[in-house]
Amino acid sequence: MVALQTAAAAGLTRVGLQSAHAAEPAAVDTAPAIVIGSGYGAAVAALRLGQAGIRTLVIEMGKLWNTAGSDGKVFCSTAAPDERSMWFRTRTEAPLATFLWLDVVNKDIGLYPGVLDRVHYDNMSVYVGRGVGGGSLVNGGMAVTPLQSYFSEQFPTVDATEMYNTYFPRARTMLGVNTVDPTWFESTEWYQFTRTSRKAAANAGLKTTFVPNVYDFAYMQREAAGTATKSALAAEVIYGNNYGKKSLDKTYLAAALGTGNVTIHTLERVRAISRGTDGTYTLTADRIDTTGAVVETKQYSCTYLFLGGGSLGTTELLVRARETGTLPALDASVGTGWGTNGNVMTGRANHIWDTVGANQSTMPVMGIDDWANTANPVFAEIAPIPTGLETWISLYLAITKNPERASFTYDAATDSARLGWTAAQSAVSVSMAKKLFDRINSANATIYRYDLFGNNKTFADDFCYHPLGGCVLGKATDNYGRVKGYPHLYITDGSLVPGSIGVNPFVTITALAERGMARILAEDTAP
Ligand code: FAE
């Protein structure tokens, strides 16, 4: 952590123990191991490689988020977004398009490598984090372990007992998972919105459950008491949290740098991967400045290459490598098995007496758990709308058991991956979510909100927070993430998860990466 802060203060784009001490560190073009990306899967890889004494270079396309802007804050809030909010945009693209049909949510901003990206494909756009820590910088921190039975359904070749006894607990400990104090939850104004949604669900005979989080709830209680600077209680979340949240830069990545073997290069986007006749991998990466201009094209080489660019990033790199012939032997399943985790967002209008409170914590702590309903399995996170005003809105991010999957194909004209997701595939998620929320509306005599998602839509069916798959475990890779056809090439991120996991996914991604790294370090890197 010290290394992260020192390096950021010096304005460096290379972060590590060595670089923290030197103004102009020597270029590291060759490393035994390279990790692409710095989200969950990448961070696990970096730490475990560093601990194994293997010199490792992490290449991240986003910024290191540790330097305060002119307002004294590293990140901006959802209430006042500026250029730090979004990845090279001139206007924010928040999940809620409008409020009361008014265009008051989104704001014009300057072009900058901001922390949240919304990647647009036909019929689906995907929110992802950009920066050292990947999605952990922008997400809601919900740290949910999936039902063992559904995990086994999705990963039939993985030893679930070992996952639940060893790797899930290891991931939760490392991530700093904790739970809200139930007594405080029942009394605080900051979770009135959750209690109102719980009551509406209970009226429909639906079960709710507390969900753990990586936001430090002791810190949040101090925020509420006025003794700590507010973050979750100051509308900070999707554009980053200045305090309280244990994002990866404070957990896995800080520990990785602490090994002394890991260096992070930022604002460098890997675009090509090839393999030499000696079996080493060569990468081409574009280094950008904060205007987005490519200021240098760099070559790297390594013996062990770990892909942690996330479902979109890793899959695009491999689809491009296969189709342009730089890694021609990649399996035909690379690019397939992609899904949205059944994501769909919706809002309900409560009665005037069912207030949700002007003050809302940005960290969700409860879900409506109807996953056991085999006719229509849904797990719906009770989400905040932290506007500082009473809105009477109950917002939800539903995770449905949508079986639809799509594939990525390589588009030579744009040198990028295209996603073949259709509107009909989103309609499957909507129909499942609608059954659940129709039940809640009918039990409470309430209706949907029409003013939030544009075009009078009641369900946001065109974006997701949980991109999963593209390089599915056991298909594109062996049972541990080793890429088929290419020795010493590994995947550690959400692209391994086959499109659905039934809950918010980062604990699963982290635990699977822990499992893969344990096996790979034991078997593949011995001298
Ligand atoms: P990810 O965290 O996306 O990291 C990939 C990293 O690689 C990023 O930093 C990229 O910038 C970088 N990268 C990609 N391509 C390249 C390249 N070519 N060269 C260099 N760098 C590259 O991957 N999940 C939960 O479990 N609980 C939640 O409460 C939750 N809330 C969410 C809220 C929002 C708004 C969003 C967007 C997501 C949320 N998620 C949540 C999803 C979660 O953050 C996501 O599943 C994980 O971050 C995925 O982890 P990966 O390691 O796959």
Automatic annotation (TrEMBL):
Keyword match Signal: yes
Enzyme Commission number: 1.1.3.6, 5.3.3.1
Required co-factors: FAD
Coiled-coil residue windows: none
Pfam families tied to this protein: GMC_oxred_C (PF05199), GMC_oxred_C_1st (PF22500), GMC_oxred_N (PF00732)
Residues of the Glucose-methanol-choline oxidoreductase N-terminal domain: 129-152
Sequence similarity: Belongs to the GMC oxidoreductase family.
Protein name: Cholesterol oxidase
